[in-house]
Design brief:
By secondary structure, this protein is of the alpha/beta class. The chain folds into three domains: about 160 residues, 3-Layer(aba) Sandwich (Adenylosuccinate Synthetase, Chain A, domain 1); about 90 residues, Adenylosuccinate Synthetase, subunit A, domain 2 (Orthogonal Bundle), CATH 1.10.300.10; about 160 residues, Adenylosuccinate Synthetase, Chain A, domain 3 (Alpha-Beta Complex). The chain is about 30% helix and about 20% strand. The strands form four sheets. It has a ten-stranded mixed β-sheet, sandwiched between helices. A hairpin with a 2-residue loop joins strand 3 and strand 4. Helix 3 crosses helix 4, helix 3 packs parallel to helix 5 and helix 5 crosses helix 6. Bound molecules: inosinic acid. Inosinic acid (IMP) binds next to helix 4.
Length: about 425
């Protein structure tokens, strides 16, 4: 039963898009089940370079059915823009389906996102501004609109009217001068209904049939485990569950049907927005990696904070997700360094910690304990076999395997689909 999840093991931006694009070539279904257009998956393949925010990366496999599942917060305006861009590049979106249970991101969610951030101006989350937190907030408060509402124009207006009244009340109480407009929203969403209506359906029967016949299903994670609402660095987290369990829940796949979890990690750390990053490099080395690796957000263009690989938080995210294997990306970005560091543990008040403290104030006070390894100072791009990597790079990867206790099955050495070393198949073998 090959249901495989690809999940970020750090703070997002680990290079999941590349891995999912690669694995999607063998998938019958590729499913996004959490997050929204706060995600930015960069994919470089023979069709071109794409930044996807909502459409699953499986869209480049003309045989795969792509699904946006109930757990996603879906902004229909952004989805339509993305579909238009893909179609203009000759990529078919005919096999894209949208769950009628998915929450809709509404224009007032974007206004509320901004107002909330302004309200906590001294200590912002650093959100992407895509309305994701407020949209999930409405879901939990059970006042959200769902994609299925687009199919019922008779009741849509009444629902929007109630929701706008509530949202405008909140905006007023937060001191925002912005207000949402019922007529504008209804008109726009009626247009989205025309365009997206044929793709919207109850996906549950299709998913359970796919599971029953052992179809290969790829679950596409967005963000990363340290941004998970429950398990991440709360409150500096996103609004959804970015873990393997969160992905299963977001589609409605029984845990029993699940086969395998791939954790995607970058060879160093990056984080956009606020929150702890104990290995952060606030010096020329950090600046060098940021520039060389072009560490700027795919969604917001913001400069990403950069640090060394942190095996303390990574050990934690391996445990939370039960990863079977690691896909380690962007090794080539360290090619020119004379030495590289791995954080093996933290020191806090004279004590050695192997796992991160749950309390953020303590987390922020942790001092990383580093192991310094010799750099390889050779170009690794174009290498196809693990044995052909410089011995220092092999050592670096083997140290990560030892520190995390699971194998590194794929090594990314460049943005293209083909630029990787595959040590073991990422899909389970037929008997797996
Ligand atoms: P939100 O998801 O826009 O509410 O942002 C909450 C936090 O998650 C902020 O620190 C964002 O920078 C971060 N975040 C959200 N989506 C992504 C992503 O796809 N990659 C990296 N960081 C993200």
């Amino acid at each position: 039963m090959p249901v495989v999840a690809v999940v970020g093991g750090q703070w997002g931006d680990e290079g999941k898009g590349k891995i999912i694009d690669l694995m999607a070539q063998e998938a019958e279904f590729v499913i996004r089940s959490q997050g929204g257009d706060n995600a930015g998956h960069t994919v470089v393949n023979p069709l071109g370079e794409f930044a996807l925010h909502l459409v699953p990366c499986g869209v480049f496999n003309p045989e795969a059915v792509c699904i946006i599942a109930p757990g996603v917060a879906l902004n229909p305006a952004i989805l339509i823009e993305e579909i238009d861009r893909l179609q203009a590049s000759g990529v078919s979106t005919d096999r894209l389906l949208l769950s009628d249970r998915a929450q809709m991101v509404m224009p007032y969610h974007l206004l509320l996102d901004r107002a909330l951030e302004n309200q906590r101006a001294d200590d912002p989350i650093g959100t992407t501004g895509r309305g994701i937190g407020p949209a999930y907030g409405d879901k939990v408060a059970r006042v959200g609109l769902r994609m299925g509402d687009l199919l019922h124009p008779d009741t849509l207006e009444a629902k929007v009217r109630v929701a706008v009244q509530r949202a405008n009340g909140s905006l007023g109480s937060m001191g925002s001068s912005q207000r949402a407009d019922v007529e504008q929203i209804v008109k726009a969403y009626q247009g989205y209904a025309q365009r997206l209506g044929p793709m919207i359906r109850d996906i549950a029967p299709m998913v359970s049939q796919a599971i029953a016949r052992d179809a290969s299903i790829l679950l596409e994670g967005a963000q990363g485990t340290l941004l998970d609402l429950d398990h991440g660095n709360y409150p500096y987290v996103t609004g959804s569950s970015c873990t393997v369990a969160g992905l299963l829940q977001g589609v409605g796949i029984p845990p029993r049907a699940f086969s395998r979890a791939i954790g995607v990690y970058k060879a160093y750390s990056t984080r956009v927005g606020s929150g702890p990053l104990p290995t952060e490099l606030l010096d020329a080395t950090g600046e060098y990696i940021r520039e060389r690796a072009h560490e700027f957000g795919a969604t917001t263009g913001r400069a990403r904070r950069v640090g060394w690989f942190d095996s303390v938080v990574s050990r934690y995210t391996v445990a939370i997700n039960g990863f079977d294997a690691v896909a380690l990306t962007r090794i080539d970005m360290l090619d020119e360094m004379s030495s590289v560091k791995l954080c093996t543990a933290y020191e806090l008040d004279g004590e050695r910690l192997e796992l991160p403290p749950s309390n953020l104030d303590l987390h922020a006070r942790c001092q990383p304990i580093y192991e310094e390894l010799p750099g390889w100072r050779k170009n690794t791009r174009g290498t196809d076999r693990f044995e052909d990597l410089p011995k220092e790079a092999i050592h670096f990867i083997q140290r990560i395997e030892a520190l995390l206790g699971i194998p590194v099955n794929l090594i990314g050495l460049g943005p293209e689909r083909s630029e990787r070393i595959m040590r073991q198949p990422l899909w389970p073998l037929a008997s797996g």
